[in-house]
Structures are given as structure tokens and as C-alpha cells.
Amino acid sequence: MVKLRKYNRFFIQIIAAFSVFLLVSCVGNKYYNSKIEGKQIGITGQSGEVKSIDAFVAPYREHINKDLDNILAYSPETLDKSKGEWQTSIGNLMADMTVEMGNPVFLSREKKNIDICILNHGGIRSILPKGNVTTRTAFEIMPFENSLIVVELKGTEIREMANYILKEKKPHPLNGLQIIIDKNTLTVKSLSVNGKPLEDSKSYYVATSDYLSNGGDNMVFFRKAVASYDMNYKLRNLMIDYFKKVDTIPVIINQRIILE
Amino acid sequence: MKRRDFLKNTAASSALLTLGGLSLSSFDNLEDTTEVKKITILHTNDVHSHIDPFPADHPKNPNMGGVARRAALVEQIRKEEKNVLLLDAGDIFQGTPYFNYYGGELEFKLMSMLQYDLATMGNHDFDNGIEGFYAQLPHAEFDFVSANYDFKNTILDGIVKPYKIIRKDGIKIGIFGLGVELQGLVSPQLYKETVYNNPVEVAQEMTRILKQENKCDLVICLSHLGFKYSNDPEKICDVNLAKKTKDIDLIIGGHTHTFLDKPVIEKNSDGKEVLINQVGCYGINLGRIDFYFDKKNKAASGNGRSIMV
């Protein structure tokens, strides 16, 4: 036993010495970063193309294209979510079409009307380009599988919604609610719903996406919902149905958030 | 007895140390000290299922992007350079009907054909749920890293690892992933029991493992935290991460779809330079960072490294 321990000790010494040797050798082989070059390369038509990759994609593409390329409407202008501080033409369009297409469904099911619609600026994933509007356009703007939900909120939560919009400073698509802001203090001056002053204790029916109604984008005011109604209507399908219904896309520039 | 042991130990080590030192200097004389090694990092972020180029009449990005063109560019660079790594900083999924129709299968297959080495997960990679992501993994011939998402109670446990160490031409490259806070961004039904941990604390742990323990020559963070939030300057982002940590050489970012004119240089908590790059979105650009290595320790001699962006 004693002998074994002595042997162990010797062994440890060898290991320790060898580790030091290794360490020293490693340092000797070490490479040091002397220079860094960084750049960005644009991927353009001049980049060339790997034909086999394109051939691999082709059957997938053809299948989808058959589905997507039918023309549904025409847009006289390009609608862009980056054009506008408190509202944008594409945001206005989306909020308005959600009420226009969603309200008949809500009315027939619940015998009530939608008062307000709020969607999120981040959820608009593409511009609506000038020219022919196709099923593809709807997929590009609204790629998510989100569906229409109508949430019953008290006036106090609508007030929170207005404060949220002011804090976020984003042109979230909005319909039904008008927010008058003091341009100096950037605080809410007055709120009205479809022309009538907001009442704190009154119930309002707010159309939105299931994503936002679950508190997405930190829309926490939805957590205090009195009730919520799933319309089982995908927002993208709503958009496609709207495009089919209208011939020409309206360019809606009226203000929902007004600085005074 | 103990003291004698210690002395003996020290003596033995010193002897070998001298030996090591000797052999080292003789090696140096034989080897070319001017030998330079080059590691080329190529990267994308937020490609969002953009497989085809934008059409020629697209008002914003006409005729830009496209995976077959990206493949040509990557192929060309691989011909010119010996040590190429191709990385992606997340949000591979969601954005074109290719994702809605095929659930990410095509994205992963194409990235495998382009020989991507590694990617991290973005919030949209949870869009078909954690199961939807898992279901497509057989199509990915590359790994995913994420250090601050704890997948212990999910289907991804042991599959998505915190970091990966890749050796290229004798250079050891440690790469770890960081993801954005999921709560409020992704429905809990989709990310299930994925736990989000503090990116700064996790990054410090990662650099300890990669730089101190594993002696990596290069430490890269694949981040989906976002570049910077002007509305919320304290929110964790790549710029804040760079300032609050050390031993990271490069942060490849995503999430905010930031188009930078050129890579950004920040100072870390040790006062050393960190490079941050993000190349917008939709496969419009490819980022390229070249790291040159030689045996001259410029940092020790006070010259430092030169960064050309």
C-alpha cells in the first residue's frame, strides 16, 4: 500500500511535469490574430448562379407559383410601412380591411359590432407594390399563420392601448380609435371611438391577431380582456378575400393619431 | 515530507520547462515565423425563406438576393480561400410561401447544399413550434448553437448545443449562439418550455469555456439579439453585449434587419476591439470577415491588431 502510494506520487510528478512541457510547446505553436478585414458583398445579377441549385428549387417553385400568381386586384401606388410616423397607408389599409371583412363574421356570430382594430407595425412584412396584386402579395405582407380574434376590453384598457402606442412611437395599424396627442408633451389629450368620446367603464370590441391578443409585441393591455372570440379566420385569408372583393386598392391617408 | 515533495516537483518541472524552452526556440529557427494563416468567415442573417431573387421590378430590392447566386458567390470564395466558414445568425424561416408550403424543408436542404457550417436560432425559427423546427432538422447537414436558450425540458434537449469548436488549418475557432427573449415575441405555445437566460451572463460563461479552458484562437458569437434599440438603449443588443463582455472577437448579428455600411467596431470590458456585423436581411448581402493569424504576438509587443473595414 505504501509502495503504491509512492508510485502514485511519482506518477503525478511525471504528469505535472509533462503538462508544463505541453503548455510551453502549445504557446510556441500559438497563432496570434494580426489583422482583420471586413466587408459586405451584395448579391446581385452579376454574382452568377449555380444552375444545380436553381434546378433543385424549380419543382417547388412551380408548384407554389401555380397557386400564387393569379391576379386579384390592382394597386395604383406602392404602399410602404416605412413611410409615415404615426400612420402609414398600408397600416390604414390593413386595419380598415380587417374591420370591413371581419365585422360581418363577428356580427353574424355574436350579434355585436367591432369598434376598434389594432394590428402591429412589425407584422407588416412587405410593401404592397404598385401594379397587379396577387395571392403572393398577401403571402408577402402577411406570411404568418395568425388568425382574427375579437377581444372585449373596457375603456380603461383602450386608454392603456393609446399610451402603449405613444410609448412605442410606431405606426401600428389602427381603426376606430382616434388619439389626439399634445404635440409638446407627447401625451394623450383626448380619445374617441368612432366619433364618440371614450368611456372608461364601457366595453369595446377590438379586432386583432391571436398573436397580439396573447400579449405579443408587449401589448399587455390584452391580458385584461373581459372576453375573447376566435373568428377562425386567418388574417392572410381575410386579406386575399378583400383583394378579391375590391378591384383597385384604395390609398388611405387619413389620420388616426393627430398631434395638436 | 510535503515540502520535500513540492521542491522535487518544482525541480522536475523546471528541468522540463527549460527543455521545452530549448526545443521551442529550435523549432522557431526551423519554422517560417512569417507564415500567415487566414480564416474567412462568411455570414448571412434573417434570410426569412427568401430563396428566389427579388423580381427586377421590385421597388425596394430589385434583382437582389437569391440562393443560387449566393451559392455561386460562396463557391467562388471557397475556390480562392483555403479556410472558409459559412454561418447564419437565425430567422432562416418565415417570409415567403416556400415556408408556408414546405415548413422549412427547402431552406435547410439548400443551406446544406451551400455547406453551411453552423447557425443559431432566431425567434421566427419557432414559428411552426419547437416541434416544427425539430421535424425539419433531418434536412439540415449543419448544426445549431444556442447558449442562452435552455432546452432541457424540450424536444431539442441535447440537439441544439451551446457552442461548437471548429478547427481550420490549426486555428481553433469557438462559436456560440445567443437568442432574443422569446416572451412577448413568440407565443408560449410555440416555444414551450424553452427557458431564456441572460445573454451577458451566458456570454461570459461561454468565453471562459472557449477562451480560457479551450484556448480558442478566435471566439465568435452568433447572435439573434438585434444590433441596437434606439428607443430602449439599455435593452440587451449586440452593441451592449460587445461592451459588457470580453474575449469575443466577432459578433455576427441578426433580428433587427440592420443594413450596416460596414462592420462596426466596439470596445469590450477589457478595452479591446470587438467587431460586430449584420448584413440586413432576405439574403440580399453576404458578410465577409477575414482573420489573419501569424506567430508574432503583436498585442504583447504593443502593436495590436489592425482592423480594416
What does this structure look like?
- The complex is a heterodimer of chains A (260) and B (309).
- Chain A is globular, with a radius of gyration of 29 Å.
- In chain A, α3 (89-110) packs across α7 and α4 (135-141) runs antiparallel to α7 (235-245).
- Chain A is built from 7 helices and 12 strands.
- Chain A has a single domain (68-259), classed as 5'-nucleotidase,  domain 2.
- Chain A has helices at 2-29, 51-68, 89-110, 135-141, 155-168, 210-213, 235-245; strands at 32-42, 71-75, 116-118, 131-134, 147-154, 174-175, 177-181, 188-193, 196-197, 203-209, 227-234, 257-259.
- In chain A, β7 (177-181) and β8 form a beta hairpin.
- With 309 residues, chain B is an alpha/beta fold.
- Chain B is 31% helix and 21% strand.
- A 6-stranded mixed β-sheet of chain B has the order 6-7-9-10-12-11, covered by helices on one side.
- In chain B, β9, α8 (238-244) and β10 form a beta-alpha-beta unit.
- Chain B has a single domain, classed as Purple Acid Phosphatase, chain A, domain 2 (4-Layer Sandwich), CATH 3.60.21.10.
- The longest helix of chain B is centred in the first third of the chain and has 29 residues, at 2-30.
- Chain B contains 9 helices and 14 strands.
- Chain B is globular.
Low-confidence stretches of chain B: 1-31
Quaternary structure: heterodimer
Q: Low-confidence parts of chain A, pLDDT < 50 over ≥5 residues?
A: 20-27
Q: Can you summarize the main beta sheet of chain A?
A: 5 strands, mixed
Order of helices and strands of chain B: HEHEHHEHEEEEHEHEHEEEEHE
Sketch the topology of chain A as an H/E string, one letter per element.
Answer: HEHEHEEHEHEEEEEHEHE
The most extensive contact between chains is:
A-B, 66 and 92 residues
Number of strands of chain B: 14
Task: Using the coordinates shown, work out and report the CATH topology of chain B.
Answer: Purple Acid Phosphatase, chain A, domain 2
| CATH architecture identity of chain B | 4-Layer Sandwich
Q: Helical proportion of chain A?
A: 40-55%
Assign the CATH topology of chain A. 5'-nucleotidase,  domain 2
Estimate the global geometry of chain B from the Cα principal axes: globular
- Work out the radius of gyration of chain A: 29 Å
Category from helices, strands and their pairing of chain B: alpha/beta
Q: CATH homologous superfamily of chain A?
A: 5'-Nucleotidase, C-terminal domain
Q: What is the total tally of β strands of chain A?
A: 12
- Determine the number of helices of chain B (DSSP H or I, runs of at least 4 residues): 9
CATH class of chain B: Alpha Beta
Considering the protein shown, what is the CATH homologous superfamily of chain B? Metallo-dependent phosphatases
Give the CA-CA distance, first to last residue of chain B: 60 Å
